[in-house]
Amino acid sequence: LESLQRDLLRSRGIEILLNSPIPLLGDATLSGCAGNDAKSLGVAAVLRYLECESSLTASAPGLLPKLFESLGLSSPPEPAPTSEELEDIPNDELNRVDVQNLDREGLVYLIQRSLQVSTTLVGRRASEALLALPDEGDDVSAVSVGEASAGQDADAISPAAAKMVAYSFLIQRGGTSKKILETIQQAKAHAEANEMSDASLLLAEASLHIRRGDGEAFQSCVQTITTKYGQNPEVMQRLQQMLIQLGLIRPDGRPAAPPPAASDSSSAGLWTPDSGSPAIPAPATSSPAAAAPASAAAPSGGSKLWVPGMD
Fold first, then answer.
1. What is the pTM of this model?
2. Rounded Cα distance, 98 and 84, in Å
3. Which residues 6+ apart lie within 8 Å of 131 measured at CB?
4. Which of 59, 102, 108, 302 is most buried, judged by most C-beta within 10 A?
5. Bridge partner list, 255
6. How many angstroms from the chain centroid is the CA of residue 196?
7. Given a cut of 90, is residue 201 above it in pLDDT?
């Protein structure tokens, strides 16, 4: 479905944008206003609006240049600021920025700003440029990834944490679910190599598996989270919140419906909010490490947090 939507936008987007009536132009079309000096200001306003429409520019990066060409107009210039000049670029021109002159701090700043103002296209370019920089041997503990993503000063972020900021952006705004899943795997490898926590990555991966309808991968990912982070209350709380939002468990940590009695069948499926009672397979292991997370995240009332894959 994602590929179909993207292909339709790329193949028919120009035709639709050129020939759709636009109220700002008096219900005239862009193609009908081409070369009309009296409509030039309105056309410029529509094109500037489209430039700032993140869902459009990110889904079909080459669409707007083709639109300008179809209207007989030159594409706007692409500024190539240094990191010191980046703050002077207005938000409505941010997607045009050429990132070739930016250093690590400038790229991190641009990624953070892109998140704030939803300029996905330039955020992707900045993230890819940051990941292409050579690794450096700085202390990864200079600042946490969470602080970096939340807007910590860019120059306080170590190279390893800076790259995790780039991975985080691409996971949030990276395009198709397949590409995002690939990015998560790369980010997990980066986290392991630099002795960084991959809890947020595993939670993002679990959520993505749900979107892709891959119940087996989802349950495996949840099992990994509970095994690695069962004694971490913050991570387990985030997992619990995610499972509640998915309708898999109640707020008190109990399953949304009692797990079925054990059987020899291995075809139990993933429950979704519109599919009735959940069917949960037996846990892959009965070791103490797998069972500990349930009690680690138990609410104060004494009930245990149940997650898919647990009895």
1. 0.70
2. 14
3. 163, 166, 167
4. 108
5. 249
6. 19
7. yes
